[in-house]
Amino acid sequence: MAATLRPTSAHWGSYQVEVRDDRVVGVRANPDDPAAAPVIGNTPVAQHHRTRVARPAVRRRWLEHGPGPDPRRGDPEDAYVEVEWSTVLDLLARELERVRTEHGNSAIYGGSYGWGSAGRIHHAQSQLHRFLNTLGGYTRSVNTYSHGALEVLFPHLIGTPAANRLFSRVPSWKRIREHTELLVSFGGLRVSNTWTSSGGRTAQTAGPAMRAASDAGTEFVSVSPLRDDTGEDLKSTWVSLRPGTDTAVMLGLMHVLFSEGLADTAFLDRYTVGADRLRAYVLGGRDERGNPGGVERSPEWAERVSGVPAADLRALARRMADRRTLINVGWSVQRAKYGEQPLWAGFALACCLGQVGLPGAGFASGYGSMGNYGGGATPLGLPRMPQGNNAVRESIPVAKVSDLLLHPGESYDFNGEHRTYPDIRLVYWAGGNPFHHHQDLSRLTRAFGRPDTVVVHETHWTATARHADIVIPATTVLERDDFAASHGDLALRAMPRAVAPHGLARDEYDTYADLAERLGVREEFTEGRTSREWMRVAYERWRALLARRDLEVPGFDDFWERGRIDMPARVEDETHLGEFREDPEANALRTPSGRIELYSETIASFGYEDCPGHPVWLPGPAVTGPAPGSGRHRSAGEGDAWPLVLVANQPNTRLHSQQDMGGYSVSRKINGRDPLRMHPRDAEIAGVREGDVVRVSSPRGSCLAGLVLSDALRPGVVQLSTGAWYDPSSADVTCAHGNPNALTEDAGTSSLSQGCTGQLVRVRVEPYAGALPPVRAFEPPVGVEPVEG
Ligand SMILES: Nc1nc2c(c(=O)[nH]1)N[C@H]1C(S)=C(S)[C@@H](COP(=O)(O)OP(=O)(O)OC[C@H]3O[C@@H](n4cnc5c(=O)[nH]c(N)nc54)[C@H](O)[C@@H]3O)O[C@H]1N2
Ligand SMILES: Nc1nc2c(c(=O)[nH]1)N[C@H]1C(S)=C(S)[C@@H](COP(=O)(O)OP(=O)(O)OC[C@H]3O[C@@H](n4cnc5c(=O)[nH]c(N)nc54)[C@H](O)[C@@H]3O)O[C@H]1N2
Ligand SMILES: [Mo]
Q1: What is the C-alpha separation between 513 and 85, in angstroms, rounded?
Q2: Is 673 helix (H, G, I), strand (E, B) or coil?
Q3: Which of 311, 475, 595, 630 is least surrounded by CB atoms within 10 angstroms?
Q4: What is the pLDDT of residues 670-701, one digit of tens each?
Q5: Is there an atom of ligand 1 within 6 Å of 575 CB?
Q6: Any idea what the Cα angle at residue 154 is, between residues 386 and 329, rounded to 5°?
Q7: How far apart are CA 364 and CA 358, in angstroms?
Q8: What residues contact residue 515 under an 8 Å CB cut-off, 6+ apart?
């Protein structure tokens, strides 16, 4: 029988699945998406894999002993008992009720960070939040792993809404092609990262748009420890630097501008405050506290710190001052200790050039990080599932999850506040994989041992599901009706169900509706509607909003039948801070000064040593080695216990940990482990060879990885992308499969933002002696009967 083609959408794009006998047997790119991502090739195996959660399951020890802290949560030998839907719903409803009445709703941690799947209605996190809100709320998380420092810092520098517009109203690739002569990107421009847009994208436009800009004459400078962070087909120059030293490079560039009279003082005077203090710091008149007698941040100084030749920095600064220049700071650069500094310094550098607010110039953060960044904006929004209101005020910055669970009642600093962690009794996670995404996974396992109960909704038996007491099987996007689009997308697309649910998997909406029934709030949760009816309502509400702006889209049935409608009201001609530049009095920024704050009195008043009042050079552990107290650290004469800096960037074989068992992802593994890239020179020193399984260790833990040699890396730097399913089944290493978060340190960027710092960690790479432990990440846990296909 011939396969039928069904349309689908994922965060990694829109494509078609080939279905035969109710099975996904292949994928096909859409004809109008010539640059479709190869990661779509993961879907057929992942959809029917034996790690799919096929039935509700309860951890045996929880079932036998009842709720309570249990250090054995996550033990690879722990057994699960598969149960009926009615049994699990009764158990879960009773436990939610117990926690709520005994400890209050703030004892439920429902932050549930994670990407889940595309689809505007069945978005896992929105569904969970709506459900918990109808129950009286939950402790939530704020901000992201992606750009936690950016989200807290920029409201201080340019106020809101200008800070929000940094994500949407930046020069489009089209504007860059037309106006930008030089694009300097700290953190490169990885085309493989642009395969991803939150909510999916009709076609992959970023890669082709970069190439078009390059062909039209835009020059690219890629500042990065990896040469191949920028596509070979771009006219680009690689500036190789030591990881974690971008701020030093930026200060060195500013030094050239200030000392050679190239800084635009008219711009600085009119539009910014604090340029004088920054200038004194850069030229060495003042230290980071504003006291006389600092270090001169000259290009020679920057060379000593970053490894970038001073002459190159001088030449680059002059070129930037001489032409229409756009500065991009990739999100990776701020996902490290003191991640606020390269953002602030990069923005200050753009201000010194005086081009902020001009078409195709100024500052941005996100090109090469996400596919829809620079791909247009949809200011009128998209159809959405309403989440209701959270009656609980408690929240944490998202990457503080281990601290939250380990240290109830303890205090911490965040953005000028002194906060206290609430006492969490129940953790509820749907649509995320903290045992992929969080740092120092051994510590996270200890943290997950603390609450009374952990609930996870999952499509697959991830490491997070294996730390849960109650595991609820969720349908995948291929098993339910939905529609998809991301911010700035080209079209809204129907994604009709392609195959029947795997095993007993159900749509989460229906699970919550049944739980709500048991808790007496079914009507509040559903408002009398099925999920299919919510699709129509969300769409029609959006349609009505558009109609008020005289924009017409077809009715829901018509849309569903067509399968796709062009996105109304897309804009691609934005200039960030353009209005402010035109009239800084009438369009004053919502900052204390009304201007750009190169020095922030507010931030200075917090008194944080790790984030003072203007951008400064602070060397993080990637530069200095791990701090004392975090295992062995460097001391004179001892040699370096952790001589290499590991870059834990985004994988180019999948999205995070999703579909890691898929065909494309597995095809890149070496002896079943994720690939670690290393410069041949470093491999020789370490005594390891291409194709070896090697042991990577840090003060926090160890993992195995398969060795790939490449001269695209700066010597001294190794790269192991995130997303290999965490596999703690070997007694010999923390992770047998190659998850870099077995190695990373669980520390915030600074007291200001407390953002994720997972990008960089100092490590050692050695040959692995002894018998190789098997990879067991893709086996379902003890007691679970896999259902194939
Ligand atoms: N060391 C290091 N760590 C990092 C980073 C780094 O640079 N370095 N980057 C960080 C960043 S930026 C991010 S965004 C995070 C990403 O971390 P996550 O977003 O947590 O990673 P995903 O693998 O996308 O997890 C999504 C989970 O949702 C499940 N899922 C999919 N669809 C559904 C559904 O419909 N319902 C339910 N219930 N589940 C579903 C998938 O099976 C998967 O397990 O990782 C962070 N971690
Ligand atoms: N295929 C694919 N695409 C994705 C994702 C995925 O999992 N898979 N995840 C998506 C998500 S959620 C996010 S938030 C974005 C993240 O987007 P980014 O944060 O931009 O992506 P990364 O791949 O983590 O890092 C990009 C590059 O930064 C460089 N880099 C690392 N440290 C430094 C440094 O100190 N200085 C400089 N100059 N460069 C450095 C590294 O060489 C790395 O390859 O990607 C998105 N895109
Ligand atoms: Mo992210």
Answers
A1: 13
A2: strand
A3: 311
A4: 999 999 999 999 999 999 999 999 999 999 99
A5: no
A6: 105
A7: 12
A8: 89, 92, 93, 96, 131
Residue among 302, 287, 201, 208 nearest 255 (CA): 302
Question: What ligand 2 atom has the least distance to the C-alpha of 225?
Answer: 42
586 has pLDDT over 70: yes
- DSSP H helical ranges for 354-430: 401-406
Residue 635's pLDDT is 47
Measured between alpha carbons, how far is 232 from 223 in angstroms, rounded to an integer? 15
357 Cα: distance to centroid of ligand 3 (angstroms): 27
**Is residue 38 over pLDDT 50?**
yes
Q: Evaluate: CB of 460 within 6 angstroms of ligand 1.
A: yes
Which residues make beta-bridge pairs with 718?
646, 678
- pTM for this predicted structure: 0.97
For residue 390, the CA-to-ligand 1 centroid distance in Å is 23
- Nearest atom (ligand 1) to Cα of 476: 35
Q: What is the DSSP letter of 42?
A: G
Q: How far is Cα 450 from Cα 431, in angstroms, rounded to an integer?
A: 21
Candidates 720, 736, 709, 723; CA nearest to 676 is: 720
Q: Does the beta carbon of 187 sit less than 6 angstroms from any atom of ligand 2?
A: yes
- Here the tokens at position 453 are 């109960």
Model confidence over 249-278: pLDDT tens digits? 999 999 999 999 999 999 999 999 999 999
Q: How far is the CA of 417 from the centre of ligand 1 (A)?
A: 28
Question: Any bridge partners for residue 707, and if so which?
Answer: 676
pLDDT at 637: 45
Q: Which ligand 1 atom is nearest residue 744's CA?
A: 1
| Cβ proximity of 171 and 190 under 8 Å | no
Instruction: Report the pLDDT averaged over residues 617-646.
Output: 73
Q: Is the pLDDT of residue 788 over 80?
A: no
Buried b (16+ CB within 10 A) or exposed e, 647-681: bbbbbbbbbbbbbbbbebbbeebbebbbbbbbbee
* Ligand 1 center–CA 172 separation, angstroms: 27
* Ligand 1 close to Cβ of residue 148 (< 6 A): no
Domains within the chain, CATH numbers bracketed: 68-144+394-563 (3.40.50.740), 170-376+597-606 (3.40.228.10), 638-767 (2.40.40.20)
Does pLDDT of 624 surpass 70? yes
Please identify every residue annotated as catalytic.
113, 115
Lowest mean pLDDT among 92-96, 490-494, 625-629: 625-629
Ligand 1 nearest atom to the CA of residue 144, by list position = 14
CA–CA distance, 286 with 288 (Å, rounded to integer): 7
628 or 35, higher pLDDT: 35
Residue type, 375: G
Kindly state if the Cβ of 240 falls inside 6 Å of ligand 2: no
User: Quick one: pLDDT at residue 770?
Assistant: 87
* Residues with CB in 5 Å of ion ligand 3: 146
| Nearest partner of 120 among 541, 532, 658, 485, judged by Cα | 485
